[in-house]
Specification:
Oligomer: single chain
Helix content: 40-55%
Number of helices: 19
Shape: globular
Amino acid sequence: MNKIIYVPLDERPCNYRYPQALAKMTDLDMLIPDKSMLGDMKKPADTAALQNWVEENVKGASHLIVSIDMFVYGGIVPSRIHSLTYEACLERLSTLKSIKEQNPSIKIFAYDLIMRVPAYSSSEEEPDYYEEYGEKIFRMGWLYDKKNQNILDKEEKLELTKIERDIPIDVQKDFINRRKNNFSITKEVINLVASDIIDYLIVPLDDNAQFGFSPKEQRALMYEVDRRNLLDKVNIYPGADEIGCTLFARVFCETYQYIPEIFIRYSSTKGPFMIPKYEDRPLSESIKSHITAAGGVHVHNEEKNHFILMVYSPAIAQREMAQSGFKVEQRHRTYFSEVNIREFVQAMNWYLGNRKNIALADVAVTNGADHSLMQLLEKKEMFEQLMSYAGWNTNGNTMGTVIAHAIIASYYKQTEVRLSPGHEKASREFFYSRLVEDWGYQSIVRTHLSQHILPSLGLTPRFLKDKVVEITGQVEDLLNQFIATHLSAIKEGEISLEDVHLPWKRMFEVGFTLKLE
């Protein structure tokens, strides 16, 4: 049994539990540090204890999957607010070199985020001053980038001058200096790739945009990767919390010498060309990156493939895309005229009738499943026939998750492959977990509580104050109601939930363990 050491981006289920769930479907043994080492939102991980844990457990492992943000800064949020010197960061990063020297046969697959710049004002996951200046900091980066490219018009020049006056100098210095520090560390990570310490690197673009601090850094890194001929070892594309799943799928493909062939089918003619919200490139280009990073290949063969990726895609881009919590009447008209649910579901049903393996990526709306699509699939009794599904948060989050699951599940669908013990049960539990979380929680339960219950308690989705236990109880009750209403008729077994919790004491994400008996 191959041993995989996994250091996650943070302690939330998407980073901590999802890759473990994928590993349970296989013969690969994943070791992951105890949550107690990994911090809590703005509280950084104990990086010294974490690095000691890795060094103690890495002997005999075939792969180390490591988040640089966790390894160096103590997690995704600490990477945005830390006050570490460049020298301190570099010293922590150097541990990877000693690990490789002591374990020369191990392969290190790493990921290192370009620090995001949210377009809104909130200090929930950013420095305290972002509550007041966040939107202006985003806009400042946007205008700086255009200025550097000599495409700033006269009105934008005046706007930039005003923004520079509005944002205190110490705030600007703190934000920009941290970015410079993190960017310098990322360049050192690329040096580790060039020197064969890191065997494969993903640089995810977290909440990216067309212009700004992040796109400028992305371009500089792409030029560096190309100059050093590292295009086969470094992949830069939109994503974040799904990368642990993607890199585990890559380890899986490499271990079993499996190259999954994936055919893509869209719900909208315009779908491949739309730039999803929070991203900087057309949907089809993002999907190529997710497939390549996970070890697969995009084929144009509808008949011969390992699975068909059915992409429920938007026909409108960026800000005009709907959120899962939007009422139907709030959506752009293209959701009714150019996202053809009827044809999409009919085609999917036809593929299933012809014994094709189907993975469903639900990305026409953001931050949850599209209820219109899901209720039609329920009506057609199609859930039990689908191989994998995801529809959470961003396009990148969904794509990385559904593709990673489908790669593993499709491998075991091959007649000549021996089934891993417990593979099917683990695979189906992960599938139904996605339905319960992405559809049940994000689209229905979270929307209901956030819009109808929290305001009456003087709470917001970001701040539950002293009502976390009470709200968690309501979440659990409503999720069980969702299961009883929408998933009780499935013939694969009875679904139950354990350990329902709100990881960061807010409404944005939920954690639970799903059992299928």
